[in-house]
Amino acid sequence: MRTLFSLFALLAALLGPASTLAAPDYLSFATEDEANSTEIFSKASPAVVYVTNKALRRDFFSLDIHEIPRGSGSGFVWDDSGLIVTNFHVIAGAHRLTVTLQDQSEHDAEVVGIAPEKDLAVLRITDPPKDLVTLPLGDSSELTVGRKVLAIGNPFGLDTTLTTGVVSALGREIKAPSNRTIRGVIQTDAAINPGNSGGPLLNSLGQLVGVNTAIYSPSGASAGIGFAIPVNTVRDVVPQLIAYGRMQRPVMGLELASDRWIRRYRIDGVPVVRVFPGLPAAEAGISGAYRNSRGEVVLGDIITRIDDREIDSNDDFLSVLEKHQPGDRLEVELRRGRDTRSATVVLTEPQ
């Protein structure tokens, strides 16, 4: 018995008290998810910028004109030539724009192109440094609900802030500043607050999958419902803004009645107001409105469907055109009075 007791005492002496056992080293320990988030933030944050929108205001008493901050938001470096992508609503109405990089250097910026209908804008900083960091582009069609996403931006002016969450839903629709509908929007619960607009939404590989653009919040702060424009839309729009300054869509060559007029008179479809000679709509035999012998306006053709999609507004019409290229043939269903017919329209280049 004494021998057994001595053996236990010797073992206890060798091991020492429990408190002396090696404790985990927090500096070298990280869960797999923590390590992933840290790595992505480290690589991506140098590409995220702070965009300041400055406007001119006249002093009420002295009548002097002063430059004041009008708003701010986020953006990210598109390429190493100094192109910056952000939201249109971040830069709208600006007299002067400045972009602050992660090293706190401030650069004047000029507008290269805008797409209010997609809430996107491209800027160029006038004196870009040579070591700009860009983001790899992902594929938003590969996203599924529940996948991890990370947002980096400047909420409430607090620079380079990281929030994480998941894809909450796909295929949402939100209104753009131009009152057009942006379709296919990503919904996320990653905290997005004022100032995050224009910043990147990243997947767990650190690839850009969206541009943070809006929140749903009665209080104006994050309520767990944020929205991002999918990167596949950004891939399509940004090159157009760089090349042309605006989105390029093929044309039919006609003018439509306004949505307000359509709602006021409860018309099903979109009436054609005017057809321009020599363009596809005229060549297809589509007719606009006209005045009769008594001076009354008589409706001509009303577009009710294009291919397999019903057309109830100008937004529907433009959304269809944006999916096509010049030379594409569209089957347009028309109504005039009680008669319906179809016409084939071959789209052409913007004039």
Describe the structure.
- With 351 residues, the protein is of the alpha+beta class.
- Helix content is 18%, strand content 37%.
- It has seven helices and 20 strands.
- A hairpin with a 5-residue loop joins β2 and β3.
- The protein is elongated and about 95 Å long.
- The N and C termini lie far apart (104 Å).
* Oligomeric organization of the protein chains: single chain
Approximately what portion of the residues adopt beta-strand conformation? 35-45%
SSE order, one letter for each helix or strand: HHEEEHEEEEEEEEEHEHEHEEEEHEE
Could you report the average pLDDT, rounded to the nearest whole number? 88
Question: End-to-end distance, in Å?
Answer: 104 Å
Radius of gyration, CA atoms, in whole angstroms: 28 Å
Instruction: Give the low-pLDDT segments.
Output: none
Task: Give me the secondary-structure category.
Answer: alpha+beta
Main beta sheet: strand number and arrangement? Answer: 6 strands, antiparallel, barrel
Strands of the widest sheet, in order across it, are 1-2-3-6-5-4
Tally the beta strands: 20
Secondary structure: helix percent:
10-25%
How would the global form be characterised?
elongated
Number of helices: 7
What keyword list fits this structure?
alpha+beta, six-stranded antiparallel β-barrel, 7 helices, elongated
How is this structure best summarized?
The chain is of the alpha+beta class.
Q: What topology does this entry show?
A:
Layout: H1 2-15, H2 32-44, E1 48-58, E2 65-77, E3 83-86, H3 88-91, E4 96-100, E5 106-115, E6 120-125, E7 148-153, E8 161-175, E9 181-188, E10 200-202, E11 208-215, E12 226-230, H4 231-244, E13 254-256, H5 259-264, E14 270-275, H6 280-283, E15 290-291, E16 297-298, E17 302-306, E18 309-310, H7 314-321, E19 329-336, E20 339-346
Antiparallel strand pairs: 1-2, 1-4, 2-3, 3-6, 4-5, 5-6, 7-8, 7-10, 8-9, 9-12, 10-11, 11-12, 13-14, 14-17, 15-16, 17-18, 17-19, 19-20
